[in-house]
TrEMBL record:
Gene3D superfamilies reported for this sequence: 2-enoyl-CoA Hydratase, Chain A, domain 1, 6.10.250.170
Species assigned in the record: Vulpes vulpes (Red fox)
Taxonomic superkingdom: Eukaryota
Keywords carried by this UniProt record: Isomerase
Protein name according to UniProt: Enoyl-CoA delta isomerase 1, mitochondrial isoform X1
Designated gene of the protein: ECI1
InterPro entries in the record: ClpP/crotonase-like_dom_sf (IPR029045), Enoyl-CoA_hydra/iso (IPR001753)
């Protein structure tokens, strides 16, 4: 499954919805047991949440957008499929969450390809379920430091801290993903699925029990004048860079 939303694969409402529908189709087709998720955009896996969906819109839109983000995470995190993430570009914030939600992560060895939950650098706060997913991957202390500082890790550091499982030369990312997939598919599927659910259910349940409250928190936070101002400034910066 290749992300193809030029230029940076930002997670727009449309892309979130398409990803959920595609995963659902694959899960319902018994001939599929695993999916390799990667990017079709050179040098960029996914830039994360689409700031245009979070800026200058009405509360109903923010609520719809956040519900779609929750839905994608739940769909990925609890998927009975084996999900291997072939990270072939930069992967900040929501892009990192996408990768963290998979079962195994392979990162291309390019110092420009950083990965991490850098929300604090944008003046926003990573939701508790983003944080939980990171804690489950790299442990509490490393996650606490990474989240507060909004760290983006280059490949060697990402491997050392455990955000990714393997770093390989850029031209070997896809072939490595296929060989790792074969390894995972060699395990009796029923036992693997039950084990995955056992390990992940409590984390997913924490969001499922308070989805509406989480949406309300997001809407009230993102609607604040100070946050809207920060987002505007950041978007302008990005547009100047493009210019």
């Amino acid at each position: 499954m290749k992300l193809r939303k030029p230029p940076v694969n930002s997670l727009s409402l449309e892309l979130l919805t398409e990803l959920v529908i595609s995963l659902e189709k694959l899960e319902n087709d018994k001939s599929f047991q695993g999916v390799i998720i990667t990017s079709d955009s050179p040098g960029i896996f996914s830039a994360g949440l689409d700031l245009m969906e979070m800026c200058g819109r009405d509360p109903a839109h923010y609520a719809e957008y956040w519900k779609a983000m929750q839905e994608l995470w739940l769909r990925l995190y609890l998927s009975h499929l084996v999900l291997i993430c072939a990270v072939n570009g930069v992967s900040p914030a929501g892009g990192c969450l996408l990768a963290l939600s998979c079962d195994y992560r392979i990162l291309a060895d390019n110092p420009k390809y950083t990965i991490g939950l850098n929300e604090t650098q944008l003046g926003i706060v990573a939701p508790f379920w983003f944080a939980d997913t990171l804690v489950n991957t790299i442990g509490h202390r490393a996650a606490e430091r990474a989240l507060q500082l909004g760290l983006l890790f280059p490949p060697a550091e990402a491997l050392q801290v455990g955000i990714v499982d393997q770093v390989v030369p850029e031209d070997q990312v896809q072939s490595t993903a296929r060989s790792v997939m074969a390894q995972w598919l060699a395990v009796p599927d029923h036992a693997r699925q039950l084990t995955k659910n056992l390990m992940r259910k409590a984390t997913a349940d924490r969001l499922l029990k308070q989805r509406d409250a989480d949406i309300q928190n997001f809407v009230s936070f993102i609607s604040r004048d100070s946050i809207q101002k920060s987002l505007h400034v950041y978007i302008e910066k990005l547009q100047k860079k493009k210019g």
